[in-house]
Specification:
Strand order of the largest sheet: 9-8-10-1-11-12-6-13
Strand content: 5-15%
Order of helices and strands: HEHEEEHHEHEEHHEHHEHEHEEEEHH
Helix content: 10-25%
Number of helices: 13
Oligomer: single chain
Number of strands: 14
Distance between the termini: 12 Å
Shape: globular
C-alpha cells in the first residue's frame, strides 16, 4: 500500500507541474504528522548526510537533464520584462558588480556580447565562461526574490538584478554530480525553504524558522512592506524578523559587522540538533574553515562565511558551550569520520567558500568535484550500506528558474534548486517530481528518529521517501 500511495503522490505532483500550477496542497503533505516513534520502514537508514552547496537554481545547472522539468518547458516565463512590465528586446547587459562606498556599480563583462536576445542562454558557449569560470554574484535577497517571482510569472529576474547574467545556464552534463543524478534520484521540484539568501535558508535548515530581532535598529529594519523594502541595506522585517544576511551577537561573526546594535541576538528556538540530542541521537555540523575561524586565522582567500553556520547563531551552541564542542566541527573531522566509519546518524556538511559554488567567489566545477569526491568516499566507506546522502543547494543565488514556487506562508518557499538523493535505498535512474522544500530534509530526519516537528512547515512537508525503495 505504501508504494501505491507514493506512486499516486508522484503522479499528482507531475500533473500539477504539467498544468503549470502549484501543487494543490501548496507543496506540502497531507497534514501535520507528529512523530513519537521511529518509522520502521526507515530504520535501515543508519546515516543521513546532507551536503549543502551554494546559490544555484535548478535550471542553471540541471535545466537540460533528461526527463526533468527543464528549460524546454519554460514557456512565457523565459521572456523577461522591465519594471514597467514591458518585455525587453535585449537582456540588460551582463556586468560584474562591485561596491564603491555605499553604491553598487557594474562593469561590463567582456566575455559576453553587449546585446543578448531576451531568453535563457548557455553560459558555457562563451569563451572563458565555462563551469570552471567565475561569474558575478547576483541579487538574492528576501524581498527582491519575491519581486523577481512576480506573482508566479517568473519574469522579473533581469529587471530586479539589472543584469542579464541571471538568465544564463550551463550544460551540466559535464559535472561529476550529474553522473550521480543519472545513477540515483534527482528531485526536480525541490525548493529552498525561504525567499532570499543563504543566511535565512541555513536557518531554516537548522530550525524551520525565521530568526527574531524585535529590537532591531531602524538602520536595518524595513519601515513597511512598500517599495523601501527593496533597499539592499534592509535586513529585518517591519515586525522584527531577520531575513537577510546579518551578523550574530556571538562568535564567529562577520568582519564588516562593526555596530553591536545590528548584531542578531542569540536565538533560543528549538533546532533539529536540539531534537536529536533530546533523543540521544548523535549529530554534527561540519564546516570548511571552522577551526581556523574560531582561532581567528581564517585565510581571506578561502572565504569562510559566518552566516553559513546556522547553529552558531543559537545560544545552545555559543562559545564555551558543550553543544558547540560536541556538534560543530571542521571539514577535516568530516573526512576523518567518513574514512573511520564514525559519522554520527545525522551529519551536515558545509564546504568552505571557494568550494561551495557561490557566484562571485567560487566556480561550479570545483565545488561539484568536492561534493562528488565526498560522495565517493562515503560509498567506498564502511557506512555506505546504511547511508542516505542528500546533495542540495541553500538557494538559487538570484538565478532565474522557470517553475513558480508553491505558496505556503509568508517566508516561502523560494526558488527551485537541484537536489540529488544517493543511497543504496535510492531509486535508480529516477527523476522525482514530488514537491519538496528544504524542510523535507528535516521531516525525513524527524520520521527516521521519532522526533516532534519543529514547526508547521516541516510537520506538513513531503519527506523524501518517494525517492527511496525501502522494500
Amino acid at each position: 500500500m505504501k508504494h501505491k500511495a507514493a506512486a499516486a503522490l508522484a503522479a499528482a505532483a507531475l500533473n500539477a507541474l504539467t498544468a503549470c500550477a502549484p501543487p494543490p496542497t501548496g507543496g506540502q503533505g497531507p497534514g501535520p504528522q507528529p512523530a513519537t516513534a521511529t518509522r520502521p520502514d526507515l530504520e535501515r537508514i543508519r546515516t543521513i548526510v546532507v551536503i549543502y552547496l551554494e546559490n544555484r537554481s535548478f535550471d542553471n545547472l540541471y535545466g537540460l537533464f533528461p526527463g526533468a522539468d527543464g528549460i524546454a518547458n519554460a514557456g512565457t516565463a523565459a521572456l523577461q520584462v522591465d519594471n514597467d512590465g514591458k518585455p525587453y528586446t535585449w537582456l540588460p547587459p551582463i556586468v560584474t558588480k562591485r561596491r564603491v562606498g555605499d553604491h553598487e556599480v557594474g562593469d561590463p563583462d567582456t566575455r559576453f556580447p553587449n546585446k543578448l536576445p531576451n531568453r535563457p542562454f548557455r553560459l558555457d558557449l562563451f569563451a572563458r565562461s565555462g563551469l570552471d569560470a567565475l561569474h558575478s554574484d547576483m541579487t538574492h535577497l528576501f524581498y527582491h526574490q519575491q519581486a523577481q517571482i512576480n506573482g508566479g510569472k517568473m519574469n522579473k529576474f533581469a529587471a530586479v538584478d539589472e543584469n542579464g547574467l541571471v538568465m544564463g545556464y550551463f550544460d551540466g552534463s559535464k559535472l561529476p554530480m550529474w553522473r550521480y543524478a543519472r545513477q540515483f534520484t534527482l528531485a526536480d521540484n525541490f525548493f529552498h525553504a525561504a525567499f532570499g539568501g543563504s543566511f535565512l535558508n541555513h536557518m531554516w535548515l537548522a530550525c524551520a524558522c525565521t530568526p527574531v530581532f524585535r529590537n532591531a535598529p531602524d538602520s536595518i529594519r524595513a519601515r513597511d512592506e512598500g517599495p523601501g523594502r527593496l533597499d539592499k541595506r534592509i535586513l529585518v522585517t517591519p515586525d522584527g524578523f531577520a531575513v537577510n544576511t546579518i551578523s550574530s551577537a556571538i562568535a564567529p561573526r562577520h568582519s564588516w559587522a562593526k555596530d553591536p546594535r545590528e548584531w542578531l541576538p542569540a536565538q533560543t528556538m528549538p533546532t533539529i540538533g536540539d531534537r536529536l540530542s533530546e533523543k540521544g541521537v548523535g549529530w554534527a555540523y561540519y564546516s570548511g574553515g571552522w577551526n581556523d575561524a574560531l582561532a581567528g586565522k581564517s585565510d581571506p582567500k578561502v572565504r569562510f562565511q559566518a552566516h553559513h553556520q546556522p547553529f552558531a547563531y543559537f545560544a545552545n551552541y555559543g562559545p564555551d558551550t558543550e553543544g558547540r564542542r560536541r556538534h560543530l566541527k571542521d571539514a577535516e573531522d568530516f573526512r576523518r569520520d567518513i574514512a573511520a566509519g564514525t559519522l554520527p546518524p545525522v551529519s551536515f556538511y558545509k564546504p568552505v567558500g571557494v568550494r561551495n559554488e557561490h557566484p562571485g567567489y567560487a566556480d561550479v566545477l570545483s565545488g561539484d568535484r568536492e561534493a562528488a569526491d565526498l560522495v565517493k568516499a562515503i560509498m567506498d566507506g564502511p557506512q555506505w550500506p546504511g547511508a542516505l546522502i542528500i546533495v542540495t543547494y541553500d538557494e538559487n543565488g538570484g538565478q532565474w528558474d522557470h517553475v513558480a514556487p508553491p505558496r505556503v506562508d509568508r517566508w516561502g518557499p523560494g526558488m527551485r534548486v537541484p537536489a540529488i538523493v544517493i543511497s543504496p535505498f535510492a531509486r535508480r535512474g529516477f527523476v522525482d517530481h514530488t514537491p519538496y522544500d528544504t524542510t523535507s530534509i528535516l521531516r525525513l530526519i524527524e520520521l527516521r528518529h521519532g522526533l516532534a516537528p519543529l514547526g508547521p512547515r516541516d510537520a506538513r512537508a513531503y519527506d523524501l521517501t518517494n525517492a527511496l525503495d525501502l522494500r
